[in-house]
Amino acid sequence: MLFNSLTFIVFFAIVLFLHHLPFSWRVKKSNLLIASYLFYAAWNPPFIVLVWISTIIDWKVAHKIHQTEHKTTRKMLLLISILVNLGILAYFKYGDFLLQNWQSLMASFGVDYQVPEWSIILPVGISFYTFQTMAYSLDVYFKRAKPSKSFLDFALFVTFFPQLVAGPIVRPTHLLPQFEKERKASRNMLIWGLGLITLGLFQKVVIADGILASISDDVYGARGAVSFIDAWLGTFAFAGQIFSDFAGYSTTAIGVALTLGFSLPSNFNYPYAAIGFSDFWRRWHISLSTWLRDYLYIPLGGNQKGAIRTYINLMLTMLIGGLWHGASWTFVVWGGLHGLYLSIERLMKRTWGNVNWVKRRLVQILLALLTYLLINITWVFFRAQSFPQAFGMVKSMLGFNPEGKAVLATINIILVSVVTLGMVIVHWRMRSTSLEAVVEKTPWPVLGTLWGLMLFLIIITQGSGDAFIYFQF
What we know:
The chain has helices at about 5-20, 25-40, 50-65, 70-110, 125-140, 150-160, 170-180, 185-220, 230-260, 275-280, 285-295, 305-325, 330-350, 360-385, 385-395, 410-430, 435-440, 445-460. It is mostly helical. The protein folds into two domains: about 20-180, no CATH class; about 190-470, no CATH class. The model has no long low-confidence stretch (mean pLDDT about 90).
């Protein structure tokens, strides 16, 4: 069930209506749990079983961990949670990838190994809810939190439909306490929630799907090399598309939760105004970057075991983060590039971090532009379907493909240029403030006009009803 569908609008209206009826809090939570299962089952009902397995295993394991102080037993219990969750994830998401790489490895030794046909369907959102349930067991193991006393609350935490399939990845310490006592959206929360839903759908339907998707497809779907300008514009289009698509989902999810009386953490903070790559990861997919930091980078040793180990930990974290996004070596390279960027940035800060000229506004703007351009180089490996395509695109972007052909129409060149420039300017203007602060200072007539304009554009845009990009992860 897609946020950008009439089915969801009807579904959401029914859920919202039931949630505001004078039922007991337990009945309301039960309604939300049933609604969450129905929401997920709309894609493929049998995959609900996988959600149940993760839910029951982590519920049982966390309580057992909490009840014992025996270190070996605690470690074994945690290992059960990790193996079950990552085992399911590996089978459904990485099974075919592992088989194909095994075939290539055998072929390098002269063994003709035939890979069996892999017809397993990837369950939508499996990477998100797997990390979310694992966080629960890990928090209990590290004694950051106590296990929930209510199985209903925990089951709802795992499956809460606004963020179930594409995040934000919510920590148990953030969401579980909200289920303990009755919550009801105030008038202000309801207005804010509906406003965020509108903004999120505008980003997805109008910007991502309506304007940028086809431009990116034209460039990355071209036969042969493309020109220098088209390579950059096509990649800029994808950069804007993936931000508008994913931030649009997160914004809609936060808005839906808010209308029900719940708060979800922000997942984006104007990342295309980042000054440097550590700043980018403080602003992009915040719930994943903080998850990787707290449950992978820091346990590996973080930056506490010397410079060399710090760089190794950074690279490992980003390589795994890349693989989390997709079962392909192009995603691993995408993550590896970010790890390389972060390592070089860390080395440069140690050398020039205290130089005054680095803090000048003009230098900061230039550094932000350089960050944005280098981020776009990484997006090539995220968008390309193969290494030859990715390398060909990078070659064109660096000016080494003089035979590249122009594929974009003039109107598309204008559109992507205007949208990209507008997006970067908005991100830069908003980098040190918040949407709430801007809305508070803006007169209601202006806000009403903008809200109405977004609704109008959503309605008239002849979208294809495409799924959100991160559903595949």
